[in-house]
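Quick one: Transcriptional regulator, LuxR family from Shewanella amazonensis, structure tokens please.
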Amino acid sequence: MNRDTITLVVLLLVIIASGSDIYMDLRQGASMMHLIEEAIVLGLATLLLSWFSLNYKRQKRQIQELTQELLDARNQALPADAALLEARHRLADVMAVQFEAWELSPSEKEVGMLLLKGLSLKEIALLRGTAEKTIRQQASSIYKKAGVVGRHGFAAWFIEDFL
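--- reply ---
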């Protein structure tokens, strides 16, 4: 179970427990102050659960949009110019060889390709279903292995001689 799932389960348990407690307290004639305290806990837990639910739906929509954008980009008509097509294939080969030379892990290779395609760290995290912090750490590891300072240096390593 991931952290978000655990949080949702805990919130659901708090809502159920608070609701049950309020019901029992009403039957037993608990003080108004106690009932108000329980209602506040129930209300906060319900608000948090609603917020998590809306955030989950928003992230799911963003992932679908990014996935569609990537699909659209992949399905774009490739240039008809044979020389340009050959250059693209050679660049892909050079990148694959260089990623091996830098000893990038499979995850780092995927993140590296997405970085070179111009996706933000947040977009990469959404696509890969990982935390943005994880992608940030992987990007830092890639830059360190490549001996560059950041994203711009990483991209420049591959295209500098073409310009």
